[in-house]
Amino acid sequence: MSIKPILIHPDPRLKKVCDAVPDVSDELRKLADDMLDTMYDAPGIGLAAPQVGVLQRVIVMDCVKDDAEPPRPMVMFNPEVLLSSDDTSVYEEGCLSIPEQYAEVTRPAEVRVKWLDRDGNEKEQDFEGLWATCVQHEIDHLNGKLFIDYLSPMKRQMMTRKSAKMKREQARA
What we know:
Elements: H1 26-41, E1 46-48, E2 58-61, E3 74-84, E4 88-95, E5 98-108, E6 110-116, E7 122-128, H2 129-142, H3 153-172
Antiparallel strand pairs: 1-2, 2-3, 3-6, 4-5, 6-7
């Protein structure tokens, strides 16, 4: 188990488009396991590789929030949205790279996603509700996009300033 440091916005690596994973290796499976440990430790419901400084198309997520339910960790290599519903939903989103800040974001309510699993097998699944929001949020990270990019310029600027201040304070500690 290895908890990785999470990059805090603004960091230029969070705005880069990530490279596709050529094949699922032991090294990438270890990265995914470390990302899950990091996500659960944070605690969060999703994490993308660029948030831990790795510019590859890898995300992890687990949207089970009820302690009575068993966790359902998901690991996705090269995830891609194939279809999006016309219906939308609004969730108050946050991000481990933009700590303690939240805003309502409108996204498609349902998506179909294709990815490679831990064994390199192609998977396809429909997601709805929080799972749909989370998978879209994490795939956005792989494309250099943050949830604050959906907000008005003024709100985005305010959140970026607050995040930058928090980052400076952490650096001094």
